[in-house]
Predict the structure.
Amino acid sequence: MEILNRPDSSTLERLHGLKRELIMLRRYLWPTREVINQLLRDHDDLFTPDTRMWMRDVYDHTVQIMDLVESYRDMAASLLDIYLSSMSHRLNESMRTLTIIATVFMPLTFIVGVYGMNFEHPTSPFAMPELGWYWGYPMVWGVMIAVAIGMVVWFKRRRWF
């Protein structure tokens, strides 16, 4: 079904157009039904028995068509709901992916931000001694990779992807 597989704006426009046409058709049929009913009820003496039978048949067909139009209108409304649900589901999937990416990179951004300050002062107790270490740079990379892998594993255990 196109609505579930590839929902797009043209599908929405077609659904709205179909629903609008069905509403217009119902508006046109309603007075027709009323006129035929009133003719049969109030002016029965104007018709021959064959014409009366034909008018009843026309009335029955009009009622059936109105019921059919109403059913199609309900189906169009249901399809519109399915379309909106499908679009909402696609949006939720996109938001989940973006949330995972942002959550994985948030602690990495914090680590990079802290080490981007380059506090290297020999007399300060708050300096970053690891900036002078031989393995300081690879250690920071190792911590960042471990944090990223840990976040991905955590998301997999929670079945986010």
Observations:
- Helices lie at 2-5, 9-42, 49-115, 136-157.
- Residues 43 and 131 are 102 Å apart (CA to CA).
